[in-house]
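Lab notebook, bench 4. The sequencing result for the construct came back, and we need a structural model before the next group meeting so we can plan mutations. Quick request posted to the team channel:

Model the 3D structure of this chain.
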Amino acid sequence: MMQPCPLCQYLHADKFHQDKHRRYYRCQHCYLIYVDEADRFDAKAEKAHYDCHKNNLEDEGYRTFLSRFSEPLLLRVGETPQQGLDFGCGPGPLLAHMMRDAGHHIELYDIYYAPDKSVLNTQYDFVSCTEAIEHFYQPQNELELLLGLVKPGGWLGIMTKLARDESAFATWHYKNDLTHVIFFSKETFEFIATRYQLELQFVGNDVILLRKTQ
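Done. Here's the predicted structure in token form:
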């Protein structure tokens, strides 16, 4: 039986790709590419993989990488101190430090490394989600949670690599991280923007800015 798309629940998907580890489908409605449920890690294996990440707060290369996201978001947020949430901050929340250095107040949330759910009980001027959305097992629920955390007029900033066609996907390094279970294209974000009435902006190849218009 075909699994419904985890983003839009549409029941029709194409068999998009298969490698030695996993099977991938592409939704015919929202164009999300997703891994077969049977090929995903369980929570213990997922956490063990994350524990291997070395996100050093002093790593200038990592800071340069994140600046591709922080700089366009800061341009839109402005210089007046704002309230923000770094969702999926991981074990080394460098982005939060960078945003705090710019004068903003930042809360942290991560299911494994900053699991205080009390920070999910308020709304923020902006929410950042860098290199995390591709890990979501239930992206519809998690995206709606993220949007619910953003004040009207505020920004949801996402950083994730964008998928292209099957030929490019077959040799794409991004899919080889076995904790990456969903992959977005520009068409998928256009679907999201239309469904939730969001202003959509693409910055470069991996930064997506969504403004909540109401």
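The beta strands are 13-18, 23-27, 33-35, 83-87, 105-109, 124-130, 150-159, 182-183, 198-203, 207-212.
Will bring this to the meeting.
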